[in-house]
Amino acid sequence: MAKTTKMFKLVLVILVCSISLNLVFVFKMVNVLGGGDHHYFLELSWTKRAAAEAEYVAAISCSGHGRAYMDGLILDQDGNKEPVCECNACYGGPRCSQFLPSCAADANGGDPYFLEPFWMENAASSGVLVAGWHRMGYSFNFQPFMVMSKELESHIRELHALVGNAVTEGKYIVFGVGSTQLLNAAVHALSPQNSSSPARVVASFPYYPLSKQQTEYFNAVDYKFEGDASLWKNKSDAATMNLIELVTSPNNPDGQLKWAQLQGPNVKAIYDRVYYWPHFTAISAPADEDIMLFSISKLTGHAGTRFGWAVVKDESVFKRMSTYVLLNTQGVSRESQLRALQLIKVVLEEGGKPIFDFGYTTMSSRWEKLNETLSLSRRFTLQKIGAKYCNFLHKIRGPSPAYAWLKCEREEAKDCYAILKAANIIGRSGSLFGAEDRYVRLSLVKTQDDFDQLLHQVKKLISDEGSAKAI
Ligand SMILES: Cc1ncc(COP(=O)(O)O)c(C=O)c1O
């Protein structure tokens, strides 16, 4: 009997110890790192320094008009190295608190900082920490020429299915160092090899300038830039020539949805779809072209990550594009792929609602404000974009283009860029897009500070127009 009691006590002690250990473990579990749907049951060890450093730099206040980066400029004061604030345009001082009133509104570039506040708001879910040994080799899983993360590819397919902006089923995906690399990879893949006559690369006006610049710069023997697509519409020799039409839809600079102008047995089209997201346009149907280019730059705003992808129907085109990327850069940096994966995971959260609501609301409000201001003017007009039903947002939505395509209406106003420059507004001349110089592109995707300054200078220009009339 005494032996049984002893035995019972021993079992009880073991049981209590086991429960206590489990409880300790559970308490550690409670001290979790949240992230998306996952919970990690580990206490931090080697990541502590990196995490602390990241949070330290992120906490540096730049007065809401700049930000400090871990690899940013360093101020060396009394032997202390400190990251400094990099200020938005028109702001200065060590903490970016000083507004520079006579500053010009720079609406030239396409840096998509309009999404920066979203990522600051979603800092916890979007950050990635790269281990010192993260994917050090040239390929994934030691498989030669495997340069793409399968996980990222499947998330991209999931994303297109969610947004409904592209058909990816039964199609191939190629990653590139931005869609910039893929644009040329696609031109190369569609050009005839060893032919005496190069493929003619065309685009309808106004077109995204890189198409022309890249094609001319690479000066390849198998393709050549030939200008306006519409000029080839009724040419009799067009039927026998290899033509590659670059179609940017929605278009940069004017935000219009475009379709290929040319048809025929030797005509191929490359669709640049980098702006086909709810931030910029209504999603009316999934795009289903043979070659479609997308980019993280315009989806999440991370142009610096240099990550884009092509959705390709034809296997031989896919293989030629993949070889191009392989020979050119050995694929895309694995750090970029890791970051793109995390960003896309955040985009997918709550069915994409948070980021696309934010993107659309921001862009449409900028468009409305600029449109309203310019509607008071007789000298300047903007492109017309109608309201449309969006299958993703489930509503009829107004325009929210990435760029304003401004026209100087007066007969004598042939150099619109110069007119705006004189009014402290820097845009991009129409001729760069193959259009007349009475057009100027104004970027709406930059920081809120950039946009506010643009609106301020445009208002001033319009009110000066009003006073001139009064005189
Ligand atoms: C129409 C178009 N295609 C491609 C790109 C380049 O994108 P990425 O950053 O992916 O190279 C841009 C950038 O502004 C663009 O406007």
From TrEMBL:
A GO MF term: carbon-sulfur lyase activity
InterPro entries, alphabetized: Alliinase_C (IPR006948), Alliinase_N_sf (IPR037029), EGF_alliinase (IPR006947), Ethylene_sulfur-biosynth (IPR050478), PyrdxlP-dep_Trfase (IPR015424), PyrdxlP-dep_Trfase_major (IPR015421), PyrdxlP-dep_Trfase_small (IPR015422)
Keywords from the UniProt entry: Aminotransferase, Pyridoxal phosphate, Transferase
Superkingdom: Eukaryota
GO term, biological process aspect, one: amino acid metabolic process
Keyword Ion transport: no
Gene3D superfamilies membership: Aspartate Aminotransferase, domain 1, EGF-like, alliinase, Type I PLP-dependent aspartate aminotransferase-like (Major domain)
Family matches, as SUPFAM superfamilies: PLP-dependent transferases (SSF53383)
Cofactor(s) needed: pyridoxal 5'-phosphate
Domain Alliinase EGF-like: 45-103
Residue ranges of domain Alliinase C-terminal in the record: 105-461
Quaternary context: Homodimer.
PANTHER family according to UniProt: BIFUNCTIONAL ASPARTATE AMINOTRANSFERASE AND GLUTAMATE/ASPARTATE-PREPHENATE AMINOTRANSFERASE-RELATED, TRYPTOPHAN AMINOTRANSFERASE-RELATED PROTEIN 3
Family: Belongs to the alliinase family.
Name under which the protein is recorded: Trytophan aminotransferase
Annotated organism of origin: Trema orientale
Recorded name of the encoding gene: TorTAA1
